[in-house]
Amino acid sequence: MSFVADLRVVLRGRDFRRLFSTRLVSQFSDGIFQFGVAGFAFFSPESKTTALQVAAGLAVLLLPYSVLGPFVGVFIDRWSRRQILMIAPLVRGGLLLVTAGLVAADVPDPAFYAAALSVLAVNRFFLSALSASLPHVVPPERLMAANAVTPTSGTVVTFVGVGAGVLLRKLFGGDDFGVALLLATSGVVFGLSALVARTMDRQLLGPSYNPDRPQASQAVRNVVVGLVDGAKHLGSHRVAAATLGAMAAHRFFYGMATALGIILYRYYFYNGDADAALEGVSLVIATSGVGYLLAVIITPYATERFTIERWVPMALSAAGVLAAALVLPFQEWGLPVAGFVLGVAGQSVKICADTTVQRDVEDIYLGRAFSIYDMLFNVMYVLAAALSAAILPANGKSYLAVAIIAVGYPAAALAYRAITTSSRARVV
User: Helices 109-133 and 363-391 meet at what angle, rounded to 10?
Assistant: First the structure.
């Protein structure tokens, strides 16, 4: 099916339309927020950004939430997901206004990162609830179509939000007060998604009632046991587990590419001109967004033609080969094209990962499964940035980093193919 046909089919459901609208509003806001944070942390004219600082910034913003991830799953599997989608935007909007105030007051960076971390923690809680809710508003045979339309459209809208952030930065200015206005705008927009979520029935999105399920307080005390239990459940579904592994591999190599691109633009292409570097990185983000949108169109066709088990390694292999060929000349034109390639491949893999988890994992485990998903999503990205900090030179021009990306993607594809092939042979 085409993207338009997929969208037409899933939009027939009233409840799906409301869940979809909630996602679009929130992720547009998230794009503005991410641009504001990136501009403040990595492209401030007053600071000298290094690969180590990039890695440290990503670690501060993402790793702590990965520790909280299992607790998120406990509550998503117990609380009304509709209520989460109503309350989380209001909390996040309030936190963003606080963060904006801290930036305007020129507080030390640790206070800013602590506030930004709180915003991201609430946002991941919100996104996990969205993913776990999707099977409740579309029939099982439409999950692939829904996953081609919803998370990917949300990501594309995030890129649109980044574009809005670029325009707002020109309007507000790139100083601390301008960043504060960006963050405040993001907070107000995100709060609007609560109004959309409020139109859905409280019981619509699950989780299913289970009288034998432990109370949340007891589950929190046993969170590690619950996480292990969720991992075991995932492990018993080899295709879903392998596809999550493929997504994690992509995030690692994409994280390396991100750190490489930031430093190249900042010091190799523009020799420390922060504003010009930010515009260059914004172009890469825009081409990545186009790649994400193309993935929406081609992934349903590709998985129908080749199956998920074949399409995932094809996307990974193409990402490694093409990205390396485009980046190796170390010319500025190559990075936006490489961003497009990685956008297509990465979002294709993510659509397949979303679908296999939602298709194969039982509803009672979905919250924990997506918490594990988010942990992998964040941890692998930060680990890649940490490796980049160790190997990237000051100007970012590293043949070693490109070689790791070029070899790593096809290696991940081979590993995925081996696991899914043996799983299929075992079933037969």
Answer: 140
